[in-house]
Specification:
Elements (H helix, E strand, L loop, with lengths): L1 H22 L1 H6 L21 H11 L9 H35 L1
Helix pairs in contact: 1-4
Length: 107
Amino acid sequence: MGLPVLYRAFKAFDDLVKLQRKKYPEAWERDGCPRGFLPWSAQWKGPSRAGATQRCSLLWLFKTPEWASSDLMAMACLRRFRRMVGLWNFVVMPIYAVAFVIAITRG
């Protein structure tokens, strides 16, 4: 159950970064040239700062970037990213935590 949710969160973020890089290159550079999380995202050529991906992935969970607010596709990616991260944190992880507690108390 958990891996598909995590994959979809990563994919949504990657799609958002790809869209930003293609349609809003100035904003992409201002954000430090973030890259995606998935392995094939590393194929992108060009500059990248190590913390840009982590910073954007955290910041965009809580604040909509200006460049995305008027772009329907960007907003769809952002909503999908937020939903999947929320599902991971508030459904999947608690299930894993409960399963872990049950496993160690019975063992």
